[in-house]
């Protein structure tokens, strides 16, 4: 009886969109911001205690975190989207199988990922652009931080399932509690105990373990249906379906990792040919990557907060409501992106100063980097929101194309070609050109999709009237 009750009268299908989006998106944004805060807090403390080389060290370790989040998105988004779509279509048994398979996938993936990073730590850091002066610090940091990988992956993926189950606030508190602890431990280990960059890594993994413990406490109290042991396991047909709907998000984050690697290597190569040298561009890029993670957290959190609404209404064939949800998300995302643009254009030195000290050349390049590379940041919200939109409604092909566009088809070639003509300035120009082209592609693909939804809505109305 309780399960049937949960299937009927679901507010995702009729409640005002503004209230629903606030309910789901705000906790989602905060959860992802907290994930970004783990890395940003380390960056701030390391920048002030260790200095510019410490910022560079965390930068070359950052692609590992980006790839980790790609797997969390693959499993978490894929599981949550399938769960909500089947819930909207009233296929409860199918929804159960997706939840059980998803929980198993995130547990196994975290352990495998940790083993690979620990075994190949040094080659990974060299590929990611570590210089001879930065490598020892990066080895110290990643060697410890890798132990927290299973906890971070599980918590990040499971938070999406918790949110899809109608408990966005609990999902948020899991992450927030760990972030608060991380700030305190960073202060304790770096300032009070003077443990250096190793202390920052230790603070991070202890905080991730704490968030993980809070997260797993939720599942015995799952709202939609009880989670039993016989639901768990790798059911391969459902693994494939989860991967299918999570692929566009996975590709987006994987290509972000590849961009980070190409960018680091381009900056060190062309930086060595300039007055800035190798390490200054690498350190500035590390700070900018953390700022970028904040923007990504906001717009992706906003999009993921809309995922239960989009998935349920797509399954229920409420196509007008699907379009209205996307439009509201884009308007909100663009407002945030516009605010970030003003901040980076008018206060770049103040922003960079938050992340530690450096010489005058360091700050000169940092100002230039934020003003040029992030010049089109006011359009930033369009592409991530649109990728999540296509994923949430089950349009995998469009999501994959769009995921690969800005980072893979456009930005990486720009990072390789423009510096041949313009040197270090060419690396910076690649950012705004890629953002503009990706935004144009997003608008075009959504316009085509909306026309298709309008035709389907009209056909349903005609059928109902007939």
Helix proportion of residues, in percent? over 70%
What's the overall geometry? Answer: globular
Strand content: under 5%
Radius of gyration: 22 Å
Output the number of helix runs: 17
Q: How far is the first residue's CA from the last residue's CA?
A: 34 Å
Reading the helices and strands in chain order gives HHHHHHHHHHHHHHHHH
For the sheet with most strands, the description reads: none
Helix-strand makeup class: mainly alpha
Which segments are poorly predicted (pLDDT under 50) over 5 or more consecutive residues? 1-8
* Arithmetic mean pLDDT: 85
**Count the strands?**
0
Please explain how this structure is put together:
- This protein is mainly alpha-helical.
- Helix content is 83%, strand content 0%.
- It has 17 helices and no strands.
- The chain has helices spanning 2-7, 17-49, 52-88, 92-119, 121-127, 135-145, 149-164, 168-192, 196-216, 236-272, 279-315, 319-346, 348-353, 360-373, 382-392, 396-422, 424-465.
- Helix 2 (17-49) packs antiparallel against helix 7 (149-164), helix 2 runs parallel beside helix 8 and helix 3 (52-88) packs parallel to helix 7.
- It is globular, with a radius of gyration of 22 Å.
Short description:
The protein has 466 residues and is mainly α. It is built from 17 helices and no strands.
């Amino acid at each position: 009886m309780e399960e049937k009750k949960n299937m009927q009268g679901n507010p995702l299908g009729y409640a005002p969109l503004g209230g629903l989006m606030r309910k789901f998106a705000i906790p989602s944004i905060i959860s992802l911001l907290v994930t970004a805060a783990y890395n940003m807090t380390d960056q701030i403390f390391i920048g002030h205690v260790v200095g510019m080389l410490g910022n560079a060290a965390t930068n070359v370790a950052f692609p590992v975190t980006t790839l980790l989040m790609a797997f969390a998105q693959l499993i978490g988004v894929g599981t949550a989207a399938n769960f909500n779509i089947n819930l909207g279509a009233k296929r409860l048994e199918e929804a159960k199988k997706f939840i059980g398979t998803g929980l198993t996938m995130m547990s196994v993936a975290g352990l495998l990922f940790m083993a690979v990073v620990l075994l190949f730590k040094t080659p990974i850091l060299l590929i990611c652009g570590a210089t001879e002066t930065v490598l020892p610090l990066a080895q110290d940091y990643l060697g410890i931080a890798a132990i927290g990988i299973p906890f971070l992956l599980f918590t990040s993926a499971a938070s999406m399932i918790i949110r899809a189950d109608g408990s966005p606030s609990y999902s948020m508190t899991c992450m927030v509690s760990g972030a608060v602890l991380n700030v305190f431990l960073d202060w304790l280990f770096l300032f009070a105990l003077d443990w250096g960059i190793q202390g920052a890594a230790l603070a991070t993994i202890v905080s991730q373990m704490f968030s993980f413990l809070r997260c797993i406490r939720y599942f015995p109290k799952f709202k939609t249906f009880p989670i039993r042991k016989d639901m768990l396991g790798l059911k391969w047909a459902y693994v494939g379906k989860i991967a299918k709907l999570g692929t566009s998000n996975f590709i987006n984050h994987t290509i972000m990792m590849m961009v980070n690697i190409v960018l680091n290597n381009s900056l060190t190569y062309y930086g060595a040919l300039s007055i800035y040298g190798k390490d200054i561009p690498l350190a500035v890029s590390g700070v900018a990557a953390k700022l970028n993670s904040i923007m990504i957290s906001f717009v992706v959190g906003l999009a993921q907060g809309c995922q239960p609404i989009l998935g349920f209404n797509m399954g229920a064939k409420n196509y007008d409501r699907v379009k209205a949800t996307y439009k509201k998300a884009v308007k909100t995302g663009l407002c945030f992106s516009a605010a970030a643009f003003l901040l980076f254009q008018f206060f770049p030195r103040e922003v960079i100063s938050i992340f530690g000290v450096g010489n005058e050349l360091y700050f000169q390049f940092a100002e230039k980097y934020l003003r040029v590379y992030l010049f089109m940041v006011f359009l930033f919200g369009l592409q991530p929101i649109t990728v999540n939109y296509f994923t949430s409604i089950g349009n995998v092909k469009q999501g994959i194309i769009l995921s690969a566009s800005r980072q893979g088809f456009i930005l990486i070639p720009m990072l390789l070609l423009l510096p041949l003509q313009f040197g270090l300035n060419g690396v910076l120009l690649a950012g705004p050109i890629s953002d503009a082209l990706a935004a144009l592609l997003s608008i075009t693909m959504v316009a085509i999709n909306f026309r298709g939804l309008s035709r389907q809505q009209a056909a349903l109305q005609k059928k109902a009237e007939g």
